[in-house]
Design goal:
The complex is a heterodimer of chains A (116) and B (113).
Chain A: E1 4-7, E2 10-13, E3 19-25, E4 32-38, E5 44-51, E6 57-58, E7 67-73, E8 76-81, E9 90-97, E10 106-107, E11 111-115
Parallel strand pairs in A: 2-11
Antiparallel strand pairs in A: 1-3, 3-8, 4-5, 4-9, 5-6, 7-8, 9-10, 9-11
Chain B: E1 4-7, E2 10-14, E3 19-25, E4 30-38, E5 44-51, E6 56-59, E7 62-67, E8 72-77, E9 86-94, E10 102-103, E11 107-112
Parallel strand pairs in B: 2-11
Antiparallel strand pairs in B: 1-3, 3-8, 4-5, 4-9, 6-7, 7-8, 9-10, 9-11
The chains are: A mainly beta (116), B mainly beta (113).
Chain lengths: 116, 113
């Protein structure tokens, strides 16, 4: 099956710093990737849709200047949390779309971000 | 706007019981519905995917049904085991979108030995 790898699996950073999270499709080319956020004991909420070679589409209420998304290649999308604050602490998880297997969503392992 | 609801939010059962998890969605115009398992602090493991034209899918002790017209899906787990303890999420893919999913709130399952 399609494999999506996310790195790092967890990160702790100081308030005010920036953190980059990578999402890679290992055995397919992903024209579209999706970034979700999950707060404790809550479900996943879509943050943005990342399209290779073009600007990301952000969901309402998600600050595009704070959550920078870059999808420069067909196998890599990155999410950068800029000037992180404790309220940004959450579980971030990406999903990639395999054009050859368009029916199913494939998810990365997730990244636990803790801002202190 | 699509809304997905899962009932119950939490469930605790003794080992060996058969159980049913429920998922409902407000907009029946879906492309497919997917059930996932999430262990604490971990990512998502896809369990079953049901296309909008299908009624059910089975994998081992798991069976998922879909009634698109009524906006409901159920996940049936037979002969539950402690290793089944996890959060179960259902998610629907809209007909007119890419692969973005709308998730339910999940059911936290605890199977006691």
């Amino acid at each position: 099956g399609a494999v999506v790898s996310q790195h790092p699996s967890w990160v702790i950073c100081k308030s005010g710093t920036s953190v980059k999270i990578e999402c890679r499709s290992l055995d397919f080319q992903a024209t579209t990737m999706f970034w979700y956020r999950q707060f404790p004991k809550q479900s996943l909420m879509l943050m943005a849709t990342s399209n290779e070679g073009s600007k990301a589409t952000y969901e309402q209420g998600v600050e595009k200047d704070k959550f920078l998304i870059n999808h420069a290649s067909l196998t890599l999308s990155t999410l950068t949390v800029t000037s992180a604050h404790p309220e940004d602490s959450s579980f971030y998880i990406c999903s990639a779309r395999d054009p050859g297997r368009d029916t199913e969503a494939f998810f990365g392992q997730g990244t636990r971000l803790t801002v202190v | 706007k699509q809304e997905v609801t899962q009932i119950p939010a939490a469930l605790s059962v003794p080992e060996g019981e058969n159980l049913v998890l429920n998922c409902s969605f407000t907009d029946s115009a879906i492309y497919n519905l997917q059930w996932f398992r999430q262990d604490p602090g971990k990512g998502l493991t896809s369990l079953l995917l049901i296309q909008s034209s299908q009624r059910e899918q089975t994998s081992g002790r798991l069976n998922a049904s879909l009634d698109k017209s009524s906006g409901r899906s159920t996940l049936y787990i037979a002969a539950s085991q402690p290793g089944d303890s996890a959060t179960y999420l259902c998610a629907v893919r809209p007909h007119n979108a890419g692969n973005m999913l709308t998730f339910g709130g999940g059911t936290r399952l605890m199977v006691k030995p």
